[in-house]
C-alpha cells in the first residue's frame, strides 16, 4: 500500500510537470527556468519497473543529451530498460547561477532526491540526498543538452549545496 502511494505521488508529479512546454527561445528567462524545473522533474521522477515513467522525459532532451543521461543509468536498468529503483526529485529553492553562453542556458536547481528500491523478497532500501541538478539547455529547439546531479554534503537545513 505504501509503495502504491509513493508511485501515485510520483506519477502525479510527472503528469503535472509534463504540462509545461518548451519556450520558443531562451530570451524569456522565467519561462526557461519553469521549463528546466519541469523537465528535471520529468527526468528524475520515475518508478521502479515502469519504463514509461522514465522515457516520458526523452522528448525534453536532445538526442545526445538523452544518450548521456541514459549512460548514467547503466547497471540500474533491467533487461527491458525499466529502472531498478524509484526516484523522486523535489526542488528546494529557486534556480541558481542562471546564465547564457554560446547559444545555451545553464542553471542549477537545488533539491532533495529520494530513491527507493524493492527486492523480490519484499525488502525495501531508501535513501535521501540533498542535490543540485545542473542543466544546460540548447537554444533552438530549447531542449536539455546536459543534466547532471551532484550530491551535497554538510548541513541538511540548507536549500542548496552552497
Could you describe the 3D structure shown?
It is a single chain. The protein has a single domain, classed as Nuclear Transport Factor 2, Chain: A. The longest helix has 16 residues. The protein is α+β, with helices and mostly antiparallel strands. Strands 1, 2, 3, 4 and 5 form a 5-stranded antiparallel sheet that branches.
Helical run tally: 4
Mean pLDDT: 85
> What is the makeup of the main sheet?
5 strands, antiparallel
- CATH 2nd-level architecture: Roll
Here the CATH topology equals Nuclear Transport Factor 2, Chain: A
Which structural class do the helices and strands define? alpha+beta
Residues in β-strands, percent: 25-35%
Give the tags.
162 residues, alpha+beta, Nuclear Transport Factor 2, Chain: A, five-stranded antiparallel β-sheet, 5 strands, 31% strand
Write the layout of secondary structure elements.
Layout: H1 2-17, H2 29-44, H3 51-55, H4 63-71, E1 86-91, E2 96-101, E3 104-118, E4 124-138, E5 144-151
Helix pairs in contact: 1-2
Describe the structure concisely for a colleague.
This protein is α+β, with helices and mostly antiparallel strands and 162 residues long. It has helices spanning 2-17, 29-44, 51-55, 63-71, and strands spanning 86-91, 96-101, 104-118, 124-138, 144-151.
Amino acid at each position: 500500500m505504501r509503495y502504491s502511494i509513493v508511485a501515485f505521488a510520483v506519477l502525479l508529479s510527472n503528469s503535472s510537470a509534463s504540462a509545461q512546454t518548451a519556450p520558443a527561445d531562451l530570451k524569456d528567462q522565467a519561462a526557461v527556468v519553469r521549463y528546466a524545473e519541469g523537465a528535471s522533474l520529468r527526468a528524475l521522477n520515475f518508478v521502479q519497473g515502469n519504463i514509461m515513467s522514465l522515457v516520458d522525459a526523452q522528448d525534453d532532451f536532445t538526442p545526445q543529451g538523452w544518450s548521456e543521461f541514459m549512460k548514467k543509468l547503466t547497471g540500474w536498468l533491467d533487461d527491458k530498460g525499466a529502472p531498478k529503483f524509484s526516484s523522486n526529485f523535489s526542488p528546494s529553492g529557486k534556480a541558481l547561477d542562471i546564465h547564457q553562453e554560446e547559444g545555451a542556458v545553464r542553471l542549477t536547481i537545488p533539491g532533495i532526491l529520494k530513491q527507493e528500491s524493492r527486492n523480490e523478497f519484499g525488502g525495501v532500501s531508501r535513501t535521501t540526498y540533498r542535490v543540485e541538478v545542473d542543466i544546460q539547455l540548447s537554444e533552438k529547439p530549447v531542449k536539455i543538452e546536459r543534466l547532471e546531479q551532484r550530491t551535497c554534503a554538510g548541513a541538511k537545513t540548507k536549500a542548496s549545496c552552497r
